[in-house]
Amino acid sequence: MPDALHTDVGGSVGPVTTQHVTLFDDVHPLELESGHRLAPVEVAYETYGELDANGSNAVIICHALTGDAHAAGYHGDPLRAGWWDNFIGPGKPVDTRRLFVVCANLLGGCMGTTGPSSINPETGEPYGLRFPLFTVGDLVEVHRALMRHLGVTRLRAAIGGSLGGMQVLHWAMEFPDELGAAVLVCATSRLSAQNIAFSAVAREAIMRDPNFHGGDYQRIGVRPDAGLGVARMMAHITYLSEEGMREKFGRRLQNGTTPRFGFDVDFQVESYLHHQGEVFLRRFDANSYLYLTRAMDYFDPFGDMVAAGPKLEALRTPFLVVSFDSDWRFDTAHSREIVQVLAAHRVPVTFREITSPHGHDSFLLVIPEYHRTVANFLRRAGAEPGFTDAAGI
Amino acid sequence: MRLDLGVIADMVPAGSRVLDLGCGDGALLEELIRRRGCQGQGVEVSSEAFHACVARGIPVVAADIDEGLPDFTDGSFDVVVLSHTLQATRRPALVLREMMRVADTGIVSFVNYGHIGLRLRLLTRGRMPVPRLASKRWFETANIHPCSILDFESLVRGQGLVTDQPVILAADGGPAGGLAARRPNAFALAAAYVVRRDPGPGVR
Lengths: 393, 204
Description:
The complex is a heterodimer of chains A (about 400) and B (about 200).
Chain A: E1 19-24, E2 30-31, E3 37-38, E4 41-48, E5 58-62, E6 88-89, E7 94-95, E8 100-104, E9 119-120, E10 125-126, H1 136-150, E11 157-161, H2 163-174, E12 182-185, H3 193-207, H4 217-220, H5 225-239, H6 242-248, H7 268-283, H8 286-298, H9 305-313, E13 319-324, H10 332-344, E14 349-354, H11 368-380, H12 386-390
Parallel strand pairs in A: 5-8, 5-11, 6-7, 11-12, 12-13, 13-14
Antiparallel strand pairs in A: 1-4, 2-3, 4-8, 9-10
Helix pairs in contact in A: 1-2, 3-5, 3-8, 5-7
Chain B: H1 3-11, E1 17-21, H2 27-36, E2 39-44, H3 47-55, E3 60-62, E4 77-83, H4 92-102, E5 103-111, H5 116-125, H6 149-158, E6 161-163, E7 167-169, H7 178-182, H8 184-187, E8 190-197
Parallel strand pairs in B: 1-2, 1-4, 2-3, 4-5
Antiparallel strand pairs in B: 5-8, 6-8, 7-8
Helix pairs in contact in B: 1-2
């Protein structure tokens, strides 16, 4: 069983297309936590598997900071699969033979869902920094509207890594009856000072780019590529681990064995980061990066326990919390804090720290112990009426 | 379910909030949760046992109880169960203290190494005893801290804890009577204790 999931066991969901729906309009705008109203909100999403007759076999995949709706299957080239294709599909941990899987691009993103690069209907120009600030809770509100649109009343599970897990945590705390189970992988209930510091420097890199123009770069027809590239390069360092980087690059040089003694790219690790930055520019919007990282900074559902306590008391959704021992972006202490708070409030919680050298990015990789844990957990999640009873409720 | 788990399950008040340390494949928790109205949470260090719990829908935290119970806050459970696990811990006293930090009541079961058969085996054959309820050879077992009933009672007292009358277990894991009940340290194969904090002289 553990090795059965190693690579590409289970199939692909095959060719898929991203779908689009407008979920909020002027009559029913999205009411943000800040009090701002936003309309229309277009959402890009994909679905895999079939929704059963009573709409009870749905799971949602909440993507991380720079993800998109294309989680599984492929659009054109079968070799270029979705970002979590090793995790979602027939016979995979999120098994599309029995689950209806939904993944939507986040509010504020730039992959088809309304965000700062969308056209502001009031001005006919891109929002830029006039896009209202939003929270992790607002991201969840848009997901919930999509679920209603799709005819899903209750999710068998919500699943997310990193920022995705933060959405799942918020969802479970605010709307416990809507989730049969919650899966949080290398997530956090609050960013540490160090986490916020990294985000702050990334934003500074973007905002100090001469092409940023106060967020109006689209209107002017330029892009703050230098800033966004640096932001991505730095963030990428935090997604890997010391050990992983040593294994992958060491001090190896890009060309030959003799250092060139200059400031051009010479070490392999430099070349890799440059490549990551370049690729990222082609698909991501700098303003989206600002907004989404800011939403992460402010997330702190346990910060006010007077408010959180009653919500946690009412929460009986079984949780699976997974961390990776080499992750230093959101290390195991972040996951353990979530476990402690949940357990203290009698929430049934399954937790495991998985051994992996690949840092924060581990959640996207095929790690047999990790996939086996999620697969077993999801097989029970809402699969039988006794599941919530299993936790004694 | 194993008979000795049934005995433990009977010692847990129905509907209570139970933490099972070294919960194995989750069989006891499944019984308590599904049939006795308890809320249950397991802790397990073995990877295979962890997967077994997850596969049967039992909430389980993968952790080594020798590191204490940092994931659980004071008094967050009604009962903590330590079933046939104490002897496999590196720091039994710490584990006992941690149990009584997160709950007011502990239930501890263990194989009695004071049993007459084990004593005789060591005396007559000069070989390490292999108890019937834990039948592995000395180099195969995880039991690094075996104890007798007297040893256990002395550990408990040393921690400022008190026990109720133990349930004495027979070879089949069910309750035992007769000689084993009257002279447990010499004749009981195993025992299960309810442990509580000592309420102090004024209260008793």
